[in-house]
Amino acid sequence: MELTLDHIRNAADRIRGIAYPTPILTSEALNNRVGAEVFLKAEIFQRAGAFKFRGAYNATASLTREEQQQGFAAASSGNHGQGLALSAKLLGTNATILMPSNAPQAKIDAIKGYGGEVVLYDRYRENRDALQAEITRSRNAITISAYDNFGVMAGAGTVALEMLEEVPDLDEIIIPVSGGGLSAGCATAAQGIRPQIEIWGAEPTLANDTQRSLASGVRERQEIPKSIADGLLVPTPGELTFPINQKRLAGIRLATDEEIVEAMRFLFLQMKIVVEPSGAIGLATLLNAPRRERKTKIGLVLTGGNVDLPRFCELLA
Amino acid sequence: MELTLDHIRNAADRIRGIAYPTPILTSEALNNRVGAEVFLKAEIFQRAGAFKFRGAYNATASLTREEQQQGFAAASSGNHGQGLALSAKLLGTNATILMPSNAPQAKIDAIKGYGGEVVLYDRYRENRDALQAEITRSRNAITISAYDNFGVMAGAGTVALEMLEEVPDLDEIIIPVSGGGLSAGCATAAQGIRPQIEIWGAEPTLANDTQRSLASGVRERQEIPKSIADGLLVPTPGELTFPINQKRLAGIRLATDEEIVEAMRFLFLQMKIVVEPSGAIGLATLLNAPRRERKTKIGLVLTGGNVDLPRFCELLA
User: Fold this and answer.
1) Which of A91, B35, B64, B117 is most open to solvent, judged by the fewest CB atoms within 10 Å of its CB?
2) pLDDT (0 to 100) of residue A294
């Protein structure tokens, strides 16, 4: 199977009226600083606070009624779990989410708020995949990977579809990369519409598994790193997403934790919005790059806004 | 002179393409909690971070070129000062802003960033009006009151014009009240279009000068109170605004500082936006009111988002 623009257009039809078409924000101060026109796709305003709802809903709404009744399961640092728990609620079924015990409390609480069941594990000591397999087996649930799933990728790709509807002449889009589902979906959508567009990934300097994998040509595995970008800490690129990203991405840009915090501060003070560390990494790469010389139109996905207040203030104040 | 819907429509023409038409945000979680449909007019995204730019620009762009060249002056807790400094910059002239020395640093810095001159005074000890008169005299500047000015009121009223364009069947609008310019302008605009709409003011419990003045029928004066709502601390309602508010407001609702903080926390966690204390007071009155029984459409103005990060975290964390 190959992911195509048609899959993403079908996903857009499926989530219409259920996921929000989020706004694109702009800032004169930002344009002046970067030396380009920057368009921020604010998925912080998406249902469940992140773009993940698009993919989770698209993937689960595509299942048969019988499959849906088995319930869903996923391992998630939080945002996919929220999207999946809300999808389960909307579809009249249940979801079990395996989460790192140090995931933000806001994310854990939100999943429970949607009626989801949360199982916590130690991200640095326990084997996520084995635990996940056991949950799926014991509950006879359908596992919905946070990224390695064509329905999830297609749903995520609707982000780029909306961006190009509103700003058709974007020259590039910068996308946070973890498992690689958002970049795979958005690159497929965007290059399907506008072949010359450049899609760049953004990773934490200390969690650059996709950058290293693109360089070596094979999926490199890393120890789970300790970046503040809690949504970007997978051990290795997705099996299904990596070949797509290999084919489509122009490359990966990196940002340190300090640069991510600087971007979060800019978004708070200049734009009055709350973006979680993982969601601010694209802007972080841009703020710390040399000022652009030519007039470029750059799209950026602010992927989510689910961050605890104490954590936010600990990082920024 | 009487403020009319025509003044506000003219102001809308004057600021078009210069002030932003800000978005209206909604939240299922909020609607469920309040028991009504709530529409949040996000003036936090306005230029200079607050609705005040609308009035400042409208008032100053209406002046003759000669008057503009004299420069502007105002006493302001910050947001009007920012709006006026930015207006001066756009009109190629200068502005001097008299500010309380305990105004948020973000507001002071922003005024200077627009090229404005800041003069600080002690809000609790010095006489603002005397200082202001001295600044105006020594600089031969044109004073632009933050509220007691028909051009400022008309510009502020464009907020309600935009709200009713987008949601024509609003039943009520809740508006933070300080000097009373925003409520006077918005009430005039809204009731000009939709006579039956109710306009409610919101004041800090400890700074309820307009509530007491409406009750007594005369402009009551208070000691400057110490609410966290730094934008709502005037000693008495405006001379020009009060008769309009007296005629048009359904009443005033109050919120404590603790309730304001709760509203700011809700806006951060649920809606991913940054609203300053004065801007969150309308929501604070709503979150703490009894749950509505009938289906009502309520508009709320989130007036500004200019708050320092350390202050924000001190209040909320």
Assistant:
1) B64
2) 73
Q: Same structural domain for residues A32 and A58?
A: no
Q: Is A23 an 8 Å CB contact of chain B?
A: yes
> Which residues in chain B are contacts of A317 at CB distance < 8 A?
309-310, 313, 317
CA distance A237 to B213: 65
Query: What is the count of structural domains for chain A?
Result: 2
- List, for residues A229-260, the tens digit of each pLDDT value: 999 999 999 999 999 999 999 999 999 999 99
* Domain CATH for B96: 3.40.50.1100
- The residues, ordered by sequence, that sit 6+ positions from A133 with a Cβ below 8 Å of its Cβ are none
Q: Would an 8 Å CB–CB cutoff place B268 in contact with chain A? A: yes
Average pLDDT over residues A201-212: 96
Supply the pLDDT for residue B8: 98
Contact B317 A310 (CB under 8 A): yes
> In terms of residue numbers, what domain contains B273?
5-51+149-316
pLDDT of residue B89: 97
Can B213 be counted among the known catalytic residues?
Answer: no
pTM over the 0.90 mark: yes
Mean pLDDT of A28-33: 91
Instruction: Render pLDDT for A83-120 as a digit per residue (tens, 0 to 9).
Output: 999 999 999 999 999 999 988 888 899 999 999 999 99
Q: How far is it, in rounded angstroms, from Cα A55 to Cα A87?
A: 10
Residues A195 and A218 in one domain: yes
d(CA A266, CA B52): 22
Q: Which residues of B touch A313 (CB under 8 A)?
A: 312-313, 316-317
User: Residue A46 corresponds to which amino acid?
Assistant: Q
| Same domain, residue pair B47 and B165 | yes
Asked if B106's CB is within 8 angstroms of A269's CB, the reply is yes
Of A45, A272, A275, the CB nearest to B305: A272
Q: Looking at the structure, do residues B213 and B312 belong to the same domain, yes or no? A: yes
The reported pLDDT for the residue numbered B124 is 86
The CA-atom distances, in angstroms, between B46 and each of A271, B86, B129 are: 10, 12, 28
Final residue of a structural domain among A143, A174, A194:
A143
* Chain A nearest CA to B138, separation (Å): 34
Confidence of residue A78 (pLDDT cuts 50, 70, 90): confident
Which chain B residues contact residue A51 at CB under 8 A? none
Query: Rounded to a whole number, what is the distance in Å from the CA of A167 to chain B's nearest CA?
Result: 18
For position B129, what pLDDT does the model report? 87
- Sites in chain B below the pLDDT cut of 50: none
Find the CB nearest A313 among B49, B269, B317: B317
Place of tokens 């001295």: B134
The first and second tokens of residue B280, run together, are 């969150």
ipTM value of the model?
A: 0.93
Q: For chain B, count helices (H), then strands (E).
A: 14, 10
Contact A9/B at CB under 8 A = no
A300 and A175 in a single domain? The answer is yes
